[in-house]
Amino acid sequence: MVLPAELVDHIFSFLQKDIPALKACSKALPSYSRLAERYLYAHIELEQEVGNDILENPQLLVHLRTLEIRFSFSQSHKQMAISIMAIIPRMTNLILLSISAPNWEEEFVSVFGNILQQPSFQELRLSFIYGLPLSFLDNAKNIKQLTLSNCTANEKEAFSSLPSSQLSLETLVLIGDFNRNLHRWAMRWVTRLTTLELHYLSLRLDWTAFPELLVACSNSLTSLHLVMSNCM
Fold first, then answer.
1. Residues in a beta bridge with 171
2. CB-based contacts of 84-89 (< 8 A; 24+ apart in sequence)
3. pLDDT band for position 232 (50/70/90)?
4. CA distance 100 to 139
């Protein structure tokens, strides 16, 4: 007996965190395979095998909700990551994008700049990006939560005191390393901020930046989370 598709889909929804079980179920019938795709590919941590699946089967792109890309020093992995980023505009239901980049390269910069206006985006996490061109983030108009972990801004970049348009940013999370230009950029966007989180910030920071940041968002801020044990 073949179960109704609605019931099978409901069962699969409980297996989202058990990928081996979900894969095993998907092989039972061709119809199960199609139903399982939306859960198998809802959250992707970029690896060689999964990356090939996405590139070779573009119909899977619509299922992605969260995508984590960790750039490595492997040239093949790096090229795959760039290829995946190039098709992000076709991931029409993508909500969260997380990028960890040990090397900030021109090819990455050009691709990254084209994807930040994705209408479905709600959360962006960037890690280990040094010399980040913050003007790109001015285009991320739909993002509600931004996490910058061990990121520094391009010190030579100049931008106006006021952005050309308003972000939807509600939550800003700063972790680890930080520099003055990152603070200057953040000051332009925090007037509507409701949540500010500061985690394990570096001792090398200019701490005078933070009272200014708190004052700038004081009218809208409802939650302040400080984890400072590594800084004292």
1. 145, 195
2. 84/46, 84/51, 84/54, 84/55, 85/111, 85/112, 85/115, 86/111, 87/54, 87/55, 87/58, 87/61, 88/115, 88/118, 89/114, 89/115, 89/118
3. very low
4. 20
**Closest among 90, 91, 82 to 44, alpha carbons compared:** 91
In this model, does residue 223 exceed pLDDT 90?
A: yes
Q: How many residues does the chain have?
A: 232
Query: Which of 62, 15, 56, 55 is CA-nearest to residue 39?
Result: 15
Q: Which residues pair with 153 in a beta bridge?
A: 132
CA distance 91 to 89: 5
Q: With contact defined as beta carbons under 8 Å apart, do 22 and 12 qualify?
A: yes
DSSP assignment of 108-168 equals HHHHHHTTTT-TT--EEEEES-EEE-GGGGGG-TT-SEEEEES-EE-TT----SS-SS---
Structure tokens at 204: 């090398």
Give the span between the Cα atoms of 66 and 60, in whole angstroms: 13
CATH architecture, domain 42-227: Alpha-Beta Horseshoe (3.80)
SS3 228: coil
In the chain, where are the structural domains located? 1-40, 42-227
Q: Which residues contact 180 (CB under 8 A, 6 or more apart)?
A: 155, 206, 209
118-158 residue pLDDT tens: 888 899 999 988 877 777 777 777 889 999 998 887 777 76
